[in-house]
Amino acid sequence: MSHKSDKLAALAALKRARQGVPREYKEEDDVAIYDEVSEEQYKKIVKGRLQRDDFVEDDGVDGYADNGMEDWSGGEEGNFYSDEEMEEEKKKNKAKKKKAKDSGKSKSKAKPPPPPAVAPSFNDYRKKVTADQENDFMSNIFGELDAIPTKAPVASTSRKRKTSPDTSYNRSDNSSPVPYRSLPADNSSDGLDEFFTSAVPSSDDLDFSSPRKRVKTETSETDEGGLTPATQRLAQVNSFDDIDMDAFMSTDDDDISDHADVQVKPDIKPSNEPTFNAQPSWLAIYDSLSVSNTEDPSLGSLSTSTASSSVKHSDIDALETDGSLHFFWIDYLEHQGELFFVGKLKDKSTGAWISCCVTVKNLERNLFVLSRQKRAEKGEGDDEWYDTDEVPEITDVYSDFDAIRSRRGIKKFKGKFVDREYAFGDPDVPRGKTKWMKVAYAFTDKEIPSDAQSPNIAKIFGTNTSAFELLVLKRKIMGPCWIQIKNPEIDNRGVSWCKLEVIVEDPKDFNPFPDSDDNAPKDTPPLNIMSLSIRTIVNHRENKREVVCVTARTWRDMVIEGTTPPEQLPCTVQTFVRPLDRFPPGFESTAKANAKGLISPMKNERMLLNTLLVAIHKTDPDIIVGHDFLGVSLDVLLHRMRDLKADHWSRIGRFRRSAWPRIGKQGTNIRFLSGRMLCDLSSDAAKSMITSITWSLTEMCKSQLRSDREEIDPDDTASYFDGSIANPDRLMTFVRHCELDAHYHMAIASKVQILPLTKQLTVLAGNSWNKTLNGGRAERNEYILLHEFHRLKFICPDKSWGKKSVVKAEPIEDDPEALKDALKGKGGKKDKYKGGLVLDPRKGLWNSYVLVMDFNSLYPSIIQEYNIDFTTIDKSEVEEIDAGEEGQLALPGSEVPQGVLPRIIATLVNRRKQVKSLMKDRSATAAQLLQWDIKQKAYKLTANSMYGCLGFEYSRFYARQLAALTTHMGREILQHTKELAESMQLDVLYGDTDSLFVNSNATELSEALRISSEFALVVNKRYRKLEIDLDAIFQRLLLLQKKKYAAVKVEAEGETSIEVKGLDMKRREYCQLSKNVSQYVLGRILSGEATEIVVEQIHDYLTSVGENVRGGTCPLDEYVINKRLGKNPEDYPKAEGQPHVQVALKMKAKGGNARAGDIIPYVFCLPEGQEPSKTTQSDRARHRDEVRRGGSGLKIDAEYYLSQQILPPVQRLCEEIEGIDRAHLAECLGLDVNKYRAIYSAGPSEEHIFASFDSLKSDKERYKDVDLFNVKCKNCKSTFAFQPLNNVDCCLRPEGALCPACNAPLLRPSLQVQMETQIRKQLSLFYERWVICSDPTCGFRTRTMGVYGRACLRPGCTNKVAFEYSDEKMYTQLRYYAYLFDGARAVKNAAGTAELESIEALAARHSELMRQMSSCAKKYLDEYAWRWVDMNNLFGTLRLK
Fold this sequence. Notes:
The protein is of the alpha+beta class. Among the domains are: about 315-525, Alpha-Beta Plaits; about 525-750, 2-Layer Sandwich (Nucleotidyltransferase, domain 5), CATH 3.30.420; about 820-1060, B family DNA polymerase, palm domain (Palm domain of DNA polymerase, Alpha-Beta Complex), CATH 3.90.1600.10; about 1065-1240, Orthogonal Bundle (Topoisomerase I, Chain A, domain 4), CATH 1.10.132; about 1255-1330 and about 1365-1440, Hypothetical protein af0941 (Orthogonal Bundle), CATH 1.10.3200. Helix content is about 35%, strand content about 15%. Helix 28 (about 1070-1085) packs antiparallel against helix 29 (about 1090-1110) and helix 29 packs across helix 33 (about 1220-1230).
């Protein structure tokens, strides 16, 4: 009853509380939680527990071991307090609470301290496993378990409770002090504190003889100290006679330690883990490298202390006897109006080459102010300037500029009037010599806007000119060279990390040595080059990349023009590696014993980065070499150094910085390396010098070094750092792979001579070496012209940045040429101009010798031949070149002096000839030949690129008119040369820009050579600078399309090689398997064997290819497709249908890198059991590494590769070969023959065509195979194809129907008669009713119909015949004639385009002509029964009920 009453009372209390009555607190009696027993009773309870079976398996000596007693530790490991300590702890807690309460009174709400960052665990670096993958894994396990036969159960003995060891258990000093599970893993990037770092054990001391099984031990009954073992003491509590002590001791324990008198018998279980005893083949290259003593005394200790280099500034003797300083500059930094040049000089006391930073102060801007012809005033309400009749005076211009500079806060300036010339594109600036006001003021003052104007000032040039550009132009500094510094002031104020710092107060004291000075130093000083290889891993929890391993391979005092390869030069190798949780056992000792470099294990990532920065500072490299360093590695380094607050992070460059600047977008942070040059093998400059498809390191090693580089899957990086592996071999393999990559970087750079070649290019241009190394070709051309025009006292255009605005010009209705441009889609795109002339090829296989006659450096030669230059041609005279190209070109006469551009090109060409003549000297050394070869390449590249600055839109010397004039003359020259060849009875097969393919019709090589010599002699007599020469001789030529051909090229001494241009096998989006197949087929075609044999060989080979692809015998690398990202993957508006974009997005989602310009490798594959029809093409694309990884469950999509990667290229190669058709090729590959035969036999076959509906086809596709409507002009007797109204070459113009050749009018009756004639001719061909066999190898053609209907009449042929001129073809032909004059359809096709208004105007202008011509075609179309369907005949018998 009391229990029931308590419930009722509680319910009543709740009701009162609900009504608002306050609740009262009532103390309740304590409930007995524990049973109180005496000591004797407790001992009996413990004995009873120990007599029962164990309920928990023993988990280790120092872990949980049940001895039958309660755990009174309160759940806190390692916290043991006495009663006094507990009381003290309570007092401290009360004091803290009181203090917090008092502080809360003064502050509204105190913020709690942030929780400590959770250190990442090893699993954070593993790739996340999806639920589907986990289910598949468990299914495989259960499937294996089900397959195991069951055994009869074996009776087992009862096992008693295990006991804890005695606390006096003696540990050896070499044992692992902390078990794996209780190690506070230092995976965080923040590093370890000083207290804990000393407690972390070396992996060499850890015993992992059996990670899953405790070793068996044999001990004596008592130890030497007379202490009874814990097992015997516990035996006194109760009897353990029924327990097998050997089995008892063989429990799992990861933390068992070695005793002095313990014999360890490891029990190794069979493991499925791969063994790493087999040495990879690339380790042979690693072992062959020349490495100097790893303990290099010049490097000193790699401590992270802030101590500077061992060389003191006061100990350096750098000055000459006259007090000057000789200094070789290599890089610069412009900051706050001062220039900081970084380079090398020689310490005269030690003879060592050291780095030096020279600060040039007191630099002044040079502005050129153009006065107005007439004083101007601003209009009311707008910003336009309107001229007046007043002529401004010199004092007016001076006063206006004084007002402009005062508004910008410029304190003082100097000004004077000088004579200068202008010859560039600004129409508001007068050409020729003019008076300009030259203004000079300090660079430390603000910049004046480039568009600044005033009533008396029209234009100001030089406002945004950089200090570097101005200094090198005024001091005539041509690239990296020796500088003589007068009055140097040695002041080590610490602006850089260089060994010596110098200040130059007067810029005029900073001058290069003149070429005439014989005592001046000439050679480039030796440089320190560091090749950096960086390995990263994705922290999936933080979604960040972290650095795990870095190798710095350094060549000190290396002569870049030397001929010794880097593998034979001594170098120092430093590798820094850190664990993810801990190193594998024995790694430190193995790393220390490494003979090919110093491997330094680091405790964490921050220590790794700090040590790397120290190594860079002590080595002081002038050049850093890497692969994809700027785009990937540098970005990761910068973010990690900033996040981890690395010490002296600015040591990655050569200038000291304390505050972090903003880190820019990926690939734009080269400024952080200021003072050190970067040679990135994936930069634009390197790609222009290295022939490659993907420019991946693996491919470049194969193509340049003939070395097979093994790739490591980035997703497998965590497995190499697994600390539970019993030996360090796997991690050492990873480290050595990183070290070898550092060698590969330098080996490739040395192979292509990128450093000496870019230096020579920079010397010719007079710009910065670092800009040339990282793809500044346009800047090189600019600086060549800047130096020359500055010498001639010309005002040069200012540099502009950003996207240029295109001004759209509206065509004038009364201007036929403007309307013509609008019809061609040129409205608002005046910056476009025609390129080179490409002649229509005569397709086919040519078996006689073909001569390739090529003009040497066509465009540079044209510039010299016709003296095309800014100074010789007024651009207004060239304005109409690109529009009509019918008028007389205003080329400069012979009396005009040679222009700047022709003179520069002529100088480069002459210097190249001189260098090439030196190379013919048989007594020259290998080093001299190498230097001369580099020079002649630099001259050639520079001369050929000079034309580019005219046509490059973002060049400050951009001149569309001059570029259009140059290409126009190129087209004229090629056309005239073709006509000359035909006049000599030579057959021209093809022509492209600067070359002609001439068929010699000769079967003897000597005869072909004679013909080429005669032809070249005749052509070269026509020109002064232009020269044509024999470029190649083709023994056999397969000409397919424009810019697509393959040939057997005759080499020296009668040898031959295959030359391929523009074919599918040269494109990276075709896999290697496709290229191999195409290569074989091409080899058979060009073999010269009989056609029947070639066809049979190709068919047999394709059959075997189809079987191999379906059988899966081809290696994975042959299926890889490479495609370049045109922009960042997330910037694609429609990424669903683009496989490479989808793969790139997946890469970024996993933490990888993918940006514009990257080559994405992917493979088309399918999951097991899935059909291709159920997925889109993009969904089937997977990254190469994802497919290569074991257990992916993916298989190659054989149907895709056979139908899309192999069949189309092979079919295009065989188009001109008789006896081969697409259907047979598909049949050999095992594809659906009907599908491809229908496509092939669209003309000669009447089978059902599996294609798109006719209504869904475009007009271009629908009428691609029709015969054109050819019109003959009565005036000039020329014949041309009549084009539809939408075509730019349509003869219907606003003035009328005009002949394109002579502009004579075309009369309507003439057009009607010609159309009637051609339609009747087509009808005549149709009614001839020729039939042809569908098998091209048969090709039987007849007008006789056999008794078997469609069967071929040739004996032995079982194929069918079809009409050669089918009903559908006739219908399409008639529709085409009507389509040509369908104005409504032309307007509909132009809807939504810029040409709509023009098309509507033309349709209205010629409406009557088009109506009558259309009715002429429709008359025949309406009579053609094939277009009509008689619905009454089909459905007339049907009746509705």
